[in-house]
Amino acid sequence: MAYKSVIEILNAIKKKDISSSELTRYYLNQIKEKDTDLNCFITVTEEAAISKAQEIDNEISKGVIKPLSGLPIAQKDIFCTKGVKTSCGSKMLDNFISPYDATVIEKLNNAGTIMLGKTNMDEFAMGSSNETSFYGPVKNPWDKDYVPGGSSGGSASAVAARIAPCSTGTDTGGSIRQPASLCGICGLKPTYGRVSRFGMIAFASSLDQAGLFTTDALDAAVLLKEISGHDPKDSTSSSIDVPDYYEYCINNDKKAFTIGIPDEFINDLNEDVKKSFYDSIKILEGIGCKIKNIKLEHTGLGVSAYQVVAPAECSSNLSRFDGVRFGHRSDKASTLEELYRESRSEGFGKEVKRRILVGTYALSAGYYDAYYLKAQKVRNLIAQDFNNAFNEVDLILGPTTPDTAFKIGEKMNDPIAMYLSDVYTVSTNLAGLPAMSIPMGFKDKLPLGLQIIGNHFDEKNILKLCHLYQKETDWHIQEPNS
Amino acid sequence: MDKKTIDKLTFLSKLSIPESDIDELSKNLDNILKLIGEIDAAPTDGMIPMAHPLDFSQPLRDDVSKKDINRKENQHDLSKTKDGYYTVPKILD
Question: How far is B66 from chain A (nearest CA, A)?
Fold first, then answer.
């Protein structure tokens, strides 16, 4: 493919160097060629994609150019798409055709994108390896024996394998940043409330946020503007103005960021990850950034607090799947109670059931104060640590994950080991902060990710720093052989 | 976690777990409770529980009726509906 980024693709379409139809067919062919092995897509919307691309080509011939005219995109199968199966990676929704579009989908459609299909994911976004999907594991294109991370594993693997130029994801505890890190691409989780959650199947409503995968930070800047903003259909979406992120990245002169390095993020790092991380710091110092050691004293409790809050909210959110109105319905039930129980037991996988049970336990009489209330107080402690840090620094830097991708099957029987792969990402969700992972090197031919965390609604400076870093490095343009 | 507690949780959450999976589940739940139990020692005296990450008030809109719900589209799965209603197993004889 001659065009390496979303921006190059958009410019080529505008200049009529390539048509949207040609581009769409190219990516559909790439999916046909590579996805049998990778398993990134649950549904490929070939016919609709070709038809929409022709429609966009007609518009362009009449001089109608939208912000993302003709850009192919892969959508995580957690976003409701009108008339197209939305499974959320679960047997529970294997038969679910949404009657409406999620706001993210509607905005991207209106901006001129072409949906290539719906990507594979951990069931109901619960997982860090994409192995809990009803549709089978996704493979990491850097080495197919390894996981791509999760829960947005299909979206990340597709962009890394260059079978889609960009994709959407969702991040409840690291589900965009962790797979971006493991697949060697950019993954942006915006501030909670920056992007509407309407039509995004809920896992943990106070943590969930939609975001993006791209290969270049500037691509994420262009796309973020299109999906952000207040949505009357989501009362938790923010009315704060959406800046022109791309314009800011290109034209703003700011370079001398003060960057905080939390001791808690580097104390236990293995030497290879630490080396890549310190090499990255040197690059940032070289462009004028000031480095300051900081403390995020309570982030060590992030995974524990998260594993109370997220399952508690999930046990409530997933109570809607009862076999009555939509989704899987058991044919073994002869009473209403059995209909609920059998439909849910047949429809949900092991990890989802486990989280529902933990959440039910944490919310049940006698345990509510000890677990749920306590976790909410710890959440406040963690958020205050970040607030204090942002009084001293512009951005916070750390590794995205403790290590590179792990082998498929390696952690499936050890939920704790799996949960701990999100140790550096969950705290930002608890605090509602924006963060981004970008490639910072390799260890044993597998990618490593650098995480940049910003203050609420400060995506523009995260993107700016990532852009400055990517001007000095070439990790983000390296491609897997597969 | 003992079987009695697991039975109570599966009853509350409308789930059934095969007998053959109970031991593994019990072991995993014990490990998870150990992990989440780490919050117990956190110094949270005087802390306000944080239910939501952003400190903004709930926006209100005018209460205007809209006709954007299409029953036919919402009930396209005909195996679950009859005459516009959802069907369930008989509750009363």
Answer: 13
